[in-house]
Amino acid sequence: METLARWGATMSELTQDEAFLTLYSDLAREGPGAAADLGWALSVAGTPAQARICDAGCGSGADTLTLAKERPQAQITGVDKIAQFVAAAQKRVAPFGERVQIRQGDMARLDGPYDLIWCAGALYFLGVTEGLRAWRGALAEGGRVAFSEPCLLARPSDAARAFWAEYPQITDMAGIRARIADAGYRVLGENLQIGAAWENYYLPMERRIASLRPGATGPLADALDAAEAEIARWRAAPSEIAYALIVVAPE
Question: What pTM was estimated for this model as a whole?
Answer without folding.
Answer: 0.91
